[in-house]
Every structure is written in structure tokens, then in C-alpha cells.
Amino acid sequence: GYCAKGAVPLIGKRLLAGSARSWRHDFVYLRAGLEGMCFYMFQPVVRGGAVVGILACDRITQGEEDPEAVQGFTKSDQDFMQSAVDVLSLDWRRKRATEIQRQSNELLTTFLRIISKLSATLNIEEVATLLVLESKRLLNYETAGVALASEDGTSYTLISGEGFEFNPQTLIGQDAKTWAQWCISSADDTLLISDFQKRKSPMAIYAPDEIPLEVGSFLAIPLGVPPRRRGAFLATHRKGGQFHPETEQFLRILCRHASVLVENAITHRQMEELAVTDELTRLPNHRCFQDRLDEELSRARRNKTPLSLLMIDIDHFKKLNDTYGHPFGDVVLGQVADIIERCLRMEDFAGRYGGEEFALILPDTNRDGARQSAERLRAEVNRTLFTHEGISTRVTISGGLATYPKDAGAKVELIENADRALYFAKRSGRNRIAQYHVIHAMQLPIEFQG
Known about the structure:
six-stranded antiparallel sheet; 11 helices
């Protein structure tokens, strides 16, 4: 105890009973053999500036040997003890260095494995999920999440998380008082707080309405740099001092890589959307419609449910272009597309088929349901006043309906029959919806030019 407190060697001789300073019986380091001990020598073992142990030795009497005849420790003995302590310290440093190297190798191996997994996908949600799940190998967090900023920077969503509840569909505004929003909009760099519980901050971590979290350690890493900051990675632990700077450095590099991947994923998604989106109406294009119809027909066959196809055409569209000009015609196409989208259910699909013609896929919809949906859409277009640069006019649409499996059993037949019904609606006066099974049952003549 004396040696450890002073961190200096303690060398002495036992004082026999009756001496001015008799031996104190609480001054022991062995449970037995106290009576025979004549000399003692304690050498502190210091590691990292702290005494972590005591190397102790003594000299004792042998049998009837006179304690006064026992030779004390010499300078050579003291030097030998110091050498022994130095060997212990060097061995400890070697083992510690080996352990640090092993941990560093494990961190590096884990880091490279995560990088490899992240680089294998161009899906934003997969990148975020991998970042959260795999980073636990580096960071022993209790909660972690990825917040993704919107394109215009006015909101963010939590697209991946662990250890807390969240809704990936919820848009959280930029005025939200959360650490996630702060990291996205204001953080200059990584923020690592080891004593978060001492902060008297009322801000939530991930979302304004979250259940309050018990936080001792906190880490926030921005994804990207202004002005194209894409989001933030955040992690917490209820205990303080759980996140170490070395691990934080690995995560910072990881998040920098993830931000590049998110940027690439966003660009990839935009390119995919451009490839399947009509530039004028922002609706899916003809190719996308064909692919979606294949999928929906397969689902309808598998589930034995009906599926209706509605083909729509803007009446007298050529005359509209000739009268008011093509820019006005483009405005009409865009506004009709907007009306179609407003009238659709979540499960419905609308695309630009070509020219002034649109195609609507109505899953799990029979003939009557399809008729009601089509009439509602026709009436909405009919009551809309289309205006552009001082020009205002009204337009009408005609539509043709065919329903699987009663009107057609295959894709090509379904499209042709819906188009036949559309052609009949236009030939019989326009601004109306025709159903293939009605005109077919009545054996009405259909002049169809496929």
C-alpha cells in the first residue's frame, strides 16, 4: 500500500519487538511466514503512468538462524529488482501493442468488408440499412439511424434505423428540433460526445415525436458536404464513454463512402426514372406501361382477380394544336396527366401510351368498377378550364374499357379490345366511355385501324 501510494521503491528491515518502532502486524503482504521475515523490498510496476502492481521479495531466517545474521538487500539486488520490473513493463507493452494491432486489424477487416457490401448496391434504402446494421460491428451502439434529406432540402426521412421506432414514410420538416436535422443542416463535421447526459438539451435525437432516449454517448456524422449534404448517420448508447475516437475515424470514412454511394444511387434512380418517364407529362412512358401490364396480368392470373384496362384519348387534339399552338397543346397534355393522377387509387397505374393517348391499368377492378372510375375521370376533365398565357378553353376525353379475363385472356388482346372500344367512343360522338363487352354483345360495327 505504501509503495503503491508513493509509486516509489520501498526497501527496509523488520524491526524486532521491543525496538523503538516495533513491527506493525498490519504491515504484511503474505498470509504466513511473517515471523521469519527480516528484510523486504517492494518495487512498483507502472503502466501508463499508474501503479498496476507490486513486485515484492524478502529475506527470512532459516531454522534457528539469528535474524541479525541475515544479510540485507544490496545495491546489486536492488538493480536486479529494477531490471525485473523493466522486463515486466516491456512484456506488458509488447502484449498491449499486440492486442492493439489485433484490434486494429479486426477493425480494418470489418471496415473493408462493410465497404465491399456497400459498394455492391445502388439502392439508397439498401445502402442505409447496410450502414446501420454493419456499423454495429465497429460501434457497439444501442440505437442508430440514417436520415435522408429531401431533394429540395426542406425535409428529411428516417430510411433506416435500429433500436428505436420510426416510420420511413414520414416527412420531417426542416424546422424540426432534432439532432438529425441539426446534423444535416448545421454540423460542420463529426460530433462525438462521451458525456451526453450532462448536456441539458431538450432536442430529440431522430424525430420530434420519438420516445425519449436515455443517452450517455452520442455520435453524429454528416453524409456529404454542403450544399449537397444528403443526410446524417447517428448513434447513441445509454452509457457514457462507449464510442472511441479510433472507431469514430473508421465510421467517418465509412460515412464519407456511403454519402458518395447515396449520391450515385440518387443519380442512378433519376436516370432510371428518365428512362421510363415521359418528359412532358411526367407519367410512365409506353415501355414502362407494357412492363407493368405484364406484371399486373401475371398477378391477376395468380390471384384469379379481374383487371381492367382503360384507354383514353383527348378529343380533337389536332384541332386544339392548330387553333392555339403546340405549346398550349403541351399544357393540356400535362394538366390532363395531373387530373388522371389525382383520380387514381394507390394501386392503379397510368402511363402515356403515345401522342394524346393515355393508358390506365386498374388492378382488381371488374367491369362496373372500371366504368365508374372512367366516368369520374371523364367528368373531372370535362369540368376543368385549361388556361395558358391568356388562352382558356375546355376539352373532353373519350375512353375505351376492356376487362380481363371476360373481355380478353392475353395482353395483346386486352389492349386491342380496349382500343376498339375507344375508337367506337370517338366514332359515336366523343366525350364518352365505351366498354368492349357492350359493343361486342350488341354486334355494333367497329371500324378499327390497329
